[in-house]
Inverse folding.
């Protein structure tokens, strides 16, 4: 599942492939833009905002896409065979050096540059953005104290960039039951700091590694490990759901390390023992 | 001999053999010789030496030549093979001799019986199995598991006629639990038959053969047939690139494919693939072995892509057996040029046509290498040709060693597991399910097998206990009895279900959670299997690769994945969890020796050696370059050297790499021990990762990397540390599950279907919870044994630690600016890890394994003086929080009020209002709650209060509160101690209180309340003590509240202080030691001196400095007589702590009553015989004069005796009433004035002995040896001495274990309120501890007027001199300052100005400012005049001749005069 770091990496790579190049052909395979032709325009840059991608194109235009569950952008040399079936392609942008293809993209908008805010304006501080603002993120997190932390972490209006993998992992790392109301999380600032540290450390690889071990099957503490022994205490990891009614998504937790009703370790408690 | 042995066979057999073969192989001859004589035999021979025939021929001969038996007793020969596929192969291979002998017999006109060969494995259809019981074959080919099932069913009757058992591939099972299981099955077989059956073991080359022979025979003798092998190997190691160090770098190129995919990197793979393809094309039939299934898939795919045709197919354990059979056939028949395989193709299956074996990556062990390469030329006498492709440079080293050792046949030793209790439990259930046994018979049968030969009776009985229902089955149903143990008759019999249980859940191969992969559709065939973890990360619609084909996931079921073919679509590579154990210690040692030898040899010789071993030119060059780079960067580890490398990573965190070539089985438990020890000793969270080549530890947020001592362990304690850790590891959890399954405690519900892994894991976790309460629960013991011996090599680790302790292995520490080449490859795959926040408290719980005795420590620390420790503001905050009175906590609605009542108990309307966001609304909310029966109003302590409905019964029963009518019965049921509940809640919601608090609140008598509190105290929920700052009475507090309070207070204290600059520490150090005008020790008197010594006790000071500089600096007007007076009166004692050159030594002073704790332990130097005799004499006669001692020892040589005496002194063993002999000892120096002339010690006439033997000698008081007591005393003393203790300050203390040792003590003292911790001095790291008062004193010295900055001259070794200890010497080039005996420092206002070496030869300045230099030099001159320095003759200043230096003028201004070599001060 693409999370903020994946999108960040994709933006970086797409930017390297496209920046400053002139589009030689475009092909929008969605009804709304089927007749749109951007050929002849130069691409200024490609940037990420949370999990959104913005292609800024000459003429004050912005192409906005979002991966949602399993969208992806691929980069090819002209004429190279695509690695995903062609019928899944939604956008094709060609230059004379690279062709980039967006597959299975559920969200595609072509906007006036000035209207970018209409698609990304609601986002909270971008965890990987140049203007990351932890204080603002903490304020937004605290705004709804009754909401479970597991749910709040996924809310892009609080912090932009976290997805389902990270929210499970961050709750584990903080020793928090995902159902803990935000108001009872003792030090929300640390949760925010942790979120940033975790995603930042992965920004160049696109692998959501939280255990430090990049080998397959060992990258996560709890995510995707339902029924497996906790890497910390050995108890089986639990697979449950969390989210607003009707939009629950799977979340993993260790019942022993993240017991319901217990407060997370406060800084003093941890520091008192861990500092030297 | 050949003739003689062949003659034992009947004529047709002999005729066929001689016709078919030129001559028997040595293995065959030896085997037949033993077999035909009726002996048990183990035949060891490499593949391709006719082993099958060696095992079978005699059996065949007998079947043909003896009279036919009746149909039900026909079975004679049982052949057991660990591989199902091998069983099929053998059946085919027997056809030739069977037909051949028959033909030969018929040629001779003999009538021979029909010989039947049967196969029975897990794949045998049910009807065939049924037929077996009624009409058994002559020869049965089976597997260990099927033999177990046969023995545990009625079909076992057919086994009664067996007279020979052949166990093939013994080496493949002996070392595993499958082997232990088989060994017991063989014993059961013997028991069934009633006499020992002849056993034949066939094995590939194995070592030691007697271990395997013992495994095969158990209590029976076994003849070993192990003819020298003439198997030839043609091995080479090929590296297809010129410089492997350039591999793996980012190219910066934009790659095709997913925009978020991996970066483009240079790779060795394209080169390997090309060379591989060339090799495949140049040979007719190739097997490529790799170490992981994932790699097999990937490599196979790449080869076919490159070849543009199918040249290879993947073959591994996850490819279905039908597919594998097709692949094998295709390879044999030449239709397929190559197979890329994992160990699945390693064992015996006939692959005669293979003429090349390629191994990609090191095969991890010599044994496995031989087995694999042996697949090529798998015929008698053929040369086996093998090529190894290393993956990276570290791998290249291992490949080279493996190749060398393969040629020497130096395979690793094998050992069979001892006493695996899970296997025992399973076999007992199966055995007694069939027959009734007495306990003794059963034990005797079990102990006849090798794995259980030494089974302790206690373990045997514990296992029987478990099986007969000793452990509570109400907690875990599967603990219900499986067998009945009638203790009056000692008979064991099976329960009704036992047989079914053993049959459905028996076996030893763990279910590792693999999902079957099937083609979608009715009864679709099995394609292979996938790891459960891989399945969880996949979704329907994903495409993955298996068996080099692509498959689309259609559906994922609870234990299977349904797929459809997706040819041509690129798919993801699946992963499987390997269970490779890692490099064996033996190979690790060999690898270490290899690096050591190459590190010494010259280039040409090394080249020669490597080329001879089979390395090609690139391989040899890469290897040598790699080792050379490593040697330059950090040094080469080897079998006698462990290199500990430290560097900072890109985040600034310390990483410590322990380069240990001893393999993962050593490094894994070692890293566990390091994690535990660093956490406990240093309080740091460390994350370790291990590989075969070492350990990487990352220390986030640490000031300094831990010293090498924290990675080394006492050989005796390392086991405890590892055991303490492993129990809570995920490894243990999974091994426990497997052991429990083997012991039949996690039975399968239905035979044939698997229980989903998550369910097994949940059940196993439940079982573990129950089992861990019982110390000797056999499955827990077995899981530990398996982890420590089979997975880890704990005995090996202990051996390494002992070797380090014995100095046979040395540990070298290096700090590098960048990771060395070895370190880089160690770190490969190790990225930023994020740790669980709460892991530090977990470490606390693990503390029991430490050498530091925590309970003793607590005892020594005494009753906590907590009033000191509690911060008033923190207490006030917490009290508000506990009472829900903070603004965040206030109730916004009726629900929250209900919560408040439940949490806080009864509350009056006013109290409720105080807890609401809007006090005016509480009345309405309460009515709402009362109306909905969620709260009720009652009278407590004469006041109307609301309580939550849930508490109704409690208040009624505890306080006799009258309840309103109509309360649901559920809320009024009696609870066990309602009063303690209410009082406990009071405690949990208040700060420290005295007993009147809850008494008044609840309207109870104080006595009743106190009793309730005492009950809670016993339960560990409250403690009594003195807590509230400013209070005087004893108080109670809830332990959780106390914990919070302490943590919060500590944090508040730590934050309180602004750090002071480092100069302030230097000024403080002098002031604290009473040096300089601001000190106030008063006039020199014995009392004043005693106070000085109290502060200096325990620290070693050079004798030469003690009375000349150290004591006078603190006590102006000091004279030696003062010290002698204290010595003579017995108030102060001294001891030596090591000599310093020929005429000086370290002296430690201590008040007599503290001597045993504070004086350093005697050194363990070897003493001469005279010294030992002297020691005895002193011990026998107490204090003695020199002459008395001479008489006692019978010595006539004063010089020898004196030398021996001083040996005792410097070893810390002998002392004297006074310091006079020490003065005389140093007095022999030429040209220095040893002491002020007016105070020369009394001269002794020669008849009393030499001056340095003067006075009364005695032994130093015996030392306290308990390390904890000593450590506490020393730590306290250090705090007394320095006031503020930083890590650096310890350097002068000569502490064993360094800071790591005192840290836990300081931490405990902090928690007991006896010392403060904080960031007191800027830039000195976080570990700073201070006595109360010290910090304020230091802070008062931050700002001083210029006239207050006095200049002091100190011995460099004076404990008050902070430089070179708490503070580093200021940076400067050239000659370095040091805390050397004889050197002095001159400080002005705490700042270091001058450093003068012994006698003045070299002078270093640390200031350019003449305004500061001149007073410093003046002070120096003055000190020399006062006789404190001896003669001063300055020759060099700041690295140049003093006469040429700007110093000349300054010195001459201070009264120095020109002399021949420099400037001299005439005293």
């Amino acid at each position: 599942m693409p999370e903020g770091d994946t999108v960040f990496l994709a933006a970086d790579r797409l930017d390297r492939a496209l920046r400053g190049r002139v589009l030689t052909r475009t092909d929008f395979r969605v009804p709304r833009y089927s007749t749109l032709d951007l050929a002849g325009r130069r691409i200024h840059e490609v940037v990420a905002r949370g999990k959104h991608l913005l292609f800024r194109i000459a003429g004050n235009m912005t192409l906005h896409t979002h991966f949602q569950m399993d969208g992806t952008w691929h980069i090819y040399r002209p004429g190279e065979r695509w690695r995903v079936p062609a019928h899944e392609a939604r956008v094709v942008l060609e230059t004379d050096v690279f062709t980039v293809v967006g597959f299975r993209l559920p969200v595609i908008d072509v906007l006036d540059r000035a209207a970018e805010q209409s698609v990304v304006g609601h986002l909270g501080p971008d965890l990987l953005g140049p203007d990351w603002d932890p204080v603002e993120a903490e304020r937004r997190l605290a705004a709804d104290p009754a909401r479970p932390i597991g749910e709040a972490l996924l809310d892009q209006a609080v912090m932009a960039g976290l997805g389902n993998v990270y929210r499970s992992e961050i709750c584990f790392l903080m020793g928090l039951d995902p159902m803990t109301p935000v108001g009872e999380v003792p030090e929300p600032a640390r949760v925010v700091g942790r979120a940033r540290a975790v995603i930042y450390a992965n920004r160049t690889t696109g692998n959501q590694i939280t255990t430090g071990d990049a080998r397959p099957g060992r990258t996560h503490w709890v995510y995707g490990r339902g029924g497996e022994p906790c890497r910390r205490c050995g108890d089986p990891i639990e697979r449950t759901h969390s989210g607003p009614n009707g939009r629950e998504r799977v979340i993993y937790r260790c019942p022993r390390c993240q017991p319901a009703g217990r407060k997370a370790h406060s800084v003093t408690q941890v520091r008192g023992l861990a500092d030297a | 001999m050949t003739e003689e042995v062949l003659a034992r066979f009947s004529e047709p057999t002999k005729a066929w053999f001689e016709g078919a073969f030129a001559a028997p192989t040595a293995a065959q001859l030896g085997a037949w010789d033993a077999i035909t004589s009726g002996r048990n035999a183990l035949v060891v021979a490499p593949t391709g030496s006719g082993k099958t025939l060696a095992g079978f021929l005699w059996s065949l001969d007998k079947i043909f030549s003896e009279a036919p038996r009746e149909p039900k007793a026909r079975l004679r020969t049982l052949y057991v093979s660990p591989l199902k596929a091998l069983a099929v192969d053998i059946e085919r291979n027997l056809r030739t001799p069977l037909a051949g002998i028959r033909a030969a017999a018929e040629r001779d006109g003999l009538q021979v019986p029909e010989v039947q060969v049967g196969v029975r494995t897990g794949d045998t259809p049910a009807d065939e199995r049924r037929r077996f019981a009624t009409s058994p074959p002559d020869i049965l080919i089976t597997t260990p598991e099927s033999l177990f099932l046969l023995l545990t069913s009625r079909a076992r009757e057919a086994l009664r006629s067996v007279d020979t058992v052949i166990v093939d591939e013994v080496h493949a099972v002996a070392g595993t639990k499958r082997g232990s299981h088989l060994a017991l099955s063989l014993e059961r077989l013997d028991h069934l038959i009633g006499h020992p059956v002849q056993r034949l073991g066939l094995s590939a080359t194995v070592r030691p053969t007697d271990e395997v022979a013992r495994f095969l025979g158990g209590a029976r003798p076994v003849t070993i047939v192990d003819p020298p092998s003439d198997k030839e190997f043609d091995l080479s190691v090929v590296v297809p690139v010129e410089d492997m160090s350039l591999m793996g770098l980012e190219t910066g190129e934009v790659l095709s494919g997913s925009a978020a995919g991996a970066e483009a990197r240079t790779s060795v793979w394209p080169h390997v693939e090309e060379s591989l393809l060339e090799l495949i094309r140049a040979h007719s039939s190739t097997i490529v072995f790799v170490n992981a299934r994932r790699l097999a898939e990937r490599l196979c795919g790449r080869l076919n892509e490159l070849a543009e045709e199918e040249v290879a197919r993947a073959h591994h354990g996850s490819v279905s057996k039908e597919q594998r059979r097709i692949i094998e056939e295709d390879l044999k028949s030449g239709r397929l040029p190559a197979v890329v395989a994992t160990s699945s193709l390693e064992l015996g299956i006939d692959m005669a046509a293979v003429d090349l074996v390629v191994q990609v990556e090191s095969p991890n062990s010599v044994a496995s290498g031989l087995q694999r390469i042996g697949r090529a030329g798998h015929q008698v006498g053929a040369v086996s040709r093998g090529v190894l492709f290393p993956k990276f440079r570290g791998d290249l080293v291992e490949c080279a060693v493996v190749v060398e050792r393969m040629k020497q046949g130096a395979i690793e030793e094998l050992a069979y597991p001892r006493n695996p209790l899970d296997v025992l439990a399973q076999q007992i259930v199966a055995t007694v399910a069939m027959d009734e046994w007495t306990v003794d018979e059963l034990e005797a049968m079990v102990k006849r097998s090798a794995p259980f030969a030494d089974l302790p009776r206690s373990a045997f009985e514990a296992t029987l206990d478990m099986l007969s229902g000793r452990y509570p089955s109400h907690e875990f149903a599967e603990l219900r009895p499986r067998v009945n143990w009638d203790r009056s008759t000692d008979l064991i019999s099976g329960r009704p279900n036992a047989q079914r249980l053993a049959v459905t859940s028996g076996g030893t191969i763990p279910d590792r959670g693999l999902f079957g992969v099937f083609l979608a559709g009715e009864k679709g065939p099995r394609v292979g299997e996938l790891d459960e973890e891989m399945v969880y990360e996949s979704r329907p619609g994903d495409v993955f690769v298996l068996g080099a084909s692509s498959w689309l996931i259609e559906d994922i079921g609870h234990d299977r994945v349904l797929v459809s073919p997706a040819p041509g679509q690129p798919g993801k590579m699946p992963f499987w969890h390997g269970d490779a154990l890692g490099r064996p210690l033996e190979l690790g040692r060999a690898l270490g020796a290899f690096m050591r030898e190459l590190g010494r040899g010259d280039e040409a010789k090394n080249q020669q050696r490597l080329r001879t071993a089979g390395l090609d030119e690139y391989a040899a060059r890469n290897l040598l370059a790699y080792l050379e780079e490593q040697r330059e960067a950090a040094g080469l580890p080897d079998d006698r050297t462990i290199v500990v490398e430290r560097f900072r990573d890109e985040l600034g965190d310390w990483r410590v790499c322990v380069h240990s070539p001893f393999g993962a089985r050593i490094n894994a438990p070692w890293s566990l021990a390091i994690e535990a020890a660093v956490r406990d000793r240093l309080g740091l969270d460390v994350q370790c990762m291990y590989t075969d080549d070492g350990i990487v530890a990352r220390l986030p947020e640490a000031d300094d990397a831990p010293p090498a001592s924290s990675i080394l362990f006492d050989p005796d304690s390392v086991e405890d540390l590892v055991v303490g850790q492993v129990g809570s590891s995920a490894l243990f959890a999974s091994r426990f599950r497997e052991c429990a399954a083997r012991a039949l405690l996690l039975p399968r519900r239905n035979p044939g279907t698997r229980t989903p892994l998550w369910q097994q894991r949940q059940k196993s976790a439940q079982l573990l919870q129950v089992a861990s309460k019982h110390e000797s629960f056999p499955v827990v013991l077995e899981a530990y044994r398996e982890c420590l011996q089979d997975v880890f090599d704990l005995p090996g680790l202990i051996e390494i630690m002992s070797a380090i302790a014995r100095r046979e292995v040395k540990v070298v520490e290096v700090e590098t600016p960048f990771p060395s080449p070895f370190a880089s490859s160690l770190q490969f795959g190790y990225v930023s890890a994020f740790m669980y926040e709460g892991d530090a408290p977990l470490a606390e719980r693990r503390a029991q394994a430490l050498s530091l005795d925590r309970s003793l420590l607590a005892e020594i620390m005494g009753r906590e003086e907590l009033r000191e420790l509690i911060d008033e503001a923190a207490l006030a905050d917490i009290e508000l929080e506990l009472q829900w009175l903070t603004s965040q906590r206030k109730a916004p609605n009726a629900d929250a009020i209900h919560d408040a009542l439940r949490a806080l108990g009864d509350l009056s309307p006013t109290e409720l209002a105080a807890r609401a966001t809007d006090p005016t609304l509480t009345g309405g909310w309460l009515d709402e709650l009362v109306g909905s029966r969620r709260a009720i109003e009652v009278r407590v302590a004469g006041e109307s209060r609301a309580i939550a409905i849930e508490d109704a019964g409690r208040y009624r029963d505890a306080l006799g509160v009258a309840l309103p009518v109509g309360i649901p019965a559920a809320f009024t049921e009696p609870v066990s101690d309602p009063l303690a509940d209410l009082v406990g809640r009071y405690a949990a919601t208040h700060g420290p209180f005295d007993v009147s608090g809850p008494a008044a609140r609840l309207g109870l008598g104080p006595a009743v309340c106190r009793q309730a509190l005492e009950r809670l105290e016993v339960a560990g929920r409250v403690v009594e003590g003195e807590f509230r700052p400013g209070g005087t009475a004893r108080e109670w507090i809830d332990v959780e509240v106390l914990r919070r309070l302490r943590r919060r207070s500590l944090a508040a204290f730590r934050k309180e202080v602004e750090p002071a600059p480092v100069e302030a520490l230097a000024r403080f150090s002098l002031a604290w030691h009473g040096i300089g005008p601001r000190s106030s020790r008063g006039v020199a008197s014995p009392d004043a001196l005693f106070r000085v010594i109290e502060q200096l006790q325990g620290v070693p000071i050079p004798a030469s400095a003690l009375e000349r500089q150290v004591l006078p600096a603190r006590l102006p007007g000091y004279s030696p007589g003062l010290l002698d007076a204290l010595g003579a009166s017995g108030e102060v004692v001294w001891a030596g702590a090591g000599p310093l050159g020929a005429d000086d030594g370290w002296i430690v002073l201590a008040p007599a009553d503290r001597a045993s704790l504070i004086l350093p332990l005697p050194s363990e130097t070897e003493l001469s015989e005279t010294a030992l005799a002297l020691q005895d004499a002193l011990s026998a006669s107490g204090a003695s004069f020199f002459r008395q001692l001479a008489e006692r020892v019978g010595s006539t040589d004063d010089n020898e005796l004196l030398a021996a005496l001083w040996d005792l002194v410097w070893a810390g063993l002998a002392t004297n009433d006074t310091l006079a002999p020490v003065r005389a000892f140093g007095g022999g120096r030429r040209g220095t004035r040893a002491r002020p002339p007016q105070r020369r010690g009394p001269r002794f006439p020669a008849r009393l002995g030499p001056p340095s033997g003067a006075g009364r000698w005695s032994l130093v008081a015996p030392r306290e040896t308990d390390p904890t007591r000593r450590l506490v005393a020393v730590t306290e003393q250090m705090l007394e001495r320095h006031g503020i203790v930083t890590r650096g300050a310890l350097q002068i203390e000569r502490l064993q274990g360094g800071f790591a040792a005192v840290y836990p003590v300081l931490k405990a003292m902090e928690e007991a309120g006896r010392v403060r911790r904080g960031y007191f001095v800027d830039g000195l790291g976080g570990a700073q501890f201070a006595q109360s008062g010290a910090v304020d004193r230091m802070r008062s010295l931050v700002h001083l007027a210029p006239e207050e900055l006095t200049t002091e001259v100190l011995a460099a070794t004076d404990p008050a001199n902070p430089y070179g200890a708490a503070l580093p010497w200021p940076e400067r080039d050239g000659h370095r300052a040091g805390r050397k005996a004889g050197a002095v420092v001159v400080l002005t206002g705490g700042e270091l100005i001058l450093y003068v070496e012994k006698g003045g030869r070299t002078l270093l300045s640390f200031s350019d400012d003449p305004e500061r230099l001149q007073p410093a030099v003046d002070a120096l001159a003055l000190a020399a005049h006062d006789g404190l320095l001896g003669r001063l003759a300055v020759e060099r200043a700041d690295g140049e001749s003093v006469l040429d230096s700007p110093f000349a003028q300054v010195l001459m201004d201070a009264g120095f005069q020109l002399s021949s070599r420099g400037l001299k001060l005439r005293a």
Notes: Confidence is low (pLDDT under 50) at residues 263-276 of chain A. Chain A touches chain B through 72 residues (CB under 8 Å).
